[in-house]
Specification:
441 residues; hpI Integrase, Chain A; 3 domains; three-stranded antiparallel β-sheet; two-stranded antiparallel sheet; 44% helix
Length: 441
């Protein structure tokens, strides 16, 4: 008889709940349920929540786990003996169906499949990180759906999954370039998402056109680089420029944007995380050192940047973080702040043309190129070569050093200069060479 039990594998404050299915000698599989709990509120003996924040919370989680156990048992009885492999993928699929009853519902229209895949992402667990898909990743598919709908209206037809081939690829890319005036990187993202959905549909048993899997069904990301330095084109705010910005005086709403700009440059937060910060995010350790603790909305990774003196000054002056503002207003107002602070030197870079919405390369006054993401790049760039990369990564949330180096436009060959400097350093003049005398017989 099959047994289905729940357990934790971690003692962390937020621990994942695993489900294990055993059925005879042949079946012994385990995977994440997508639910979490504080280990203090978990009964290892019973394999279920004990008294937690409230009886309602306990009841809700217990009810969900009981219903999931019932569904696993029912599905096992139905699928066993039919030739369907009872493995980890099978168990993951049952959990997905439990959280989303429409999971796996077959459709052959591309638009519907993308919407279905987007819904599935809400319940998917990353096997490497054990985390759910970030909400921002899920929302990114909304843009692709909107553009696909415009394309289908233009073509006056709805595309079946089997019709997604190299002809579709060519016509869709041309439409996005010529009609929507999109930049190459935007088109690349849409194509990648469409290809991902098609491959996912194939794994579910739907028939797709083999041309989708060709290497030619791809638009590479455009890496804009400076022709002279061969480095990526992006702008950062230097330490001396931050000092200029700190002196800015103006209308209340501009000073509010200035404070957010400084906090962004000193913490490396993405703008959607930045605007959610409150004094509740401030942590103090046993040594009295303060930091800002939060979970990145994009990766759900916990990061803890230290509180810079500039940030501390703002917090003490306001008694809290500044007033939250929209991304659009933030991008608009920090340009004014930087212009009035004297960031008017001409620099080579890229910006999005407000009329065509295409990225354009050229020479502009620096304030024109400042946007919300400049904060994050400035933090990483200003600390590079001053702190170990792993220390910077702990704040920015980059998973590998290579990702960090790519982000700031450096290459891993830079380490050679450190060795060259070490090898070329002359020995001290008073250094003596000690020779051992041979032993006398």
């Amino acid at each position: 008889m099959a047994t289905i039990k729940y357990r934790l594998q971690s003692k962390k404050e937020i621990a994942n709940i695993y489900v294990r299915l055993r059925d005879g000698k042949e079946t012994d599989i385990e995977t994440l349920t997508g639910y979490t709990i504080n280990p203090n509120y978990w009964s290892e003996k019973k394999g279920e929540p004990k008294q937690i924040a409230s009886n309602t919370d306990k009841l809700n989680l217990n009810t969900k786990l009981d219903r999931l156990r019932s569904l696993i048992s029912e599905t096992l009885n139905t699928d066993k003996g039919t030739g369907i492999p009872i493995n980890k993928d099978w168990l993951i699929n049952v959990i997905a169906k439990f959280k989303n009853p429409d999971h796996g519902k077959k459709t052959e229209y591309l638009y519907d499949l993308i919407k279905g895949y987007q819904t599935e992402m809400k319940t998917k667990i990353n096997r490497k990180t054990g985390r759910e898909t970030a909400p921002t990743t899920i929302r990114n598919f909304n843009t692709t759906l909107m553009r696909l709908k415009k394309f289908e209206e233009y073509k006056k037809k709805s595309y079946l999954i089997s019709e997604v081939d190299l002809t579709f690829f060519s016509e869709f890319v041309s439409f996005e370039k010529e009609n929507l005036l999109l930049a190459q990187n935007s088109i690349s993202k849409d194509i990648k998402q469409i290809k991902t959905v098609c491959i996912n549909a194939k794994e579910k048993g739907l028939e797709i056109n083999k041309q989708v899997e060709y290497k030619g069904f791809n638009i590479p990301n455009e890496s804009l680089v400076d022709k002279k330095t061969k480095k990526k084109l992006f702008v950062t705010i230097t330490e001396s420029e931050i000092e200029l910005i700190k002196q800015f005086k103006g209308a209340d709403y501009l000073q509010n944007a200035r404070d957010w700009l400084i906090i962004g440059c000193r913490t490396g937060c993405r703008v959607n995380d930045l605007m959610k910060l409150t004094k509740d995010n401030i942590q103090t350790d046993v040594n009295g050192q303060k930091s800002i603790k939060y979970n990145q909305s994009k990766t759900n990774k916990e990061v803890e940047p230290p509180i810079h003196p500039d940030v501390n000054e703002i917090l003490e002056r306001l008694g809290n973080f500044p007033r939250p503002i929209s991304d659009q207003r933030f991008n608009e107002w920090i340009k004014i702040v930087c212009r009035e602070s004297g960031l008017v030197q001409e620099v080579h870079g890229t910006r999005q043309n407000p009329k065509t919405h295409r990225k354009e390369v050229g020479t502009f006054q620096k304030w024109e190129l400042i946007r919300s993401h400049t904060c994050r790049r400035s933090f990483a760039t200003n600390h590079y070569d001053k702190l170990p990369n792993k220390i910077i990564m702990a704040v920015t949330g980059h998973a590998t050093e290579q990702m960090l180096l790519n982000y700031i436009g450096e290459t891993d060959s830079n380490h050679l200069s450190y060795y060259n400097n070490l090898y070329s350093t002359p020995k001290p003049k008073d250094e003596k060479i000690i020779q051992l005398k041979p032993k006398q017989a």
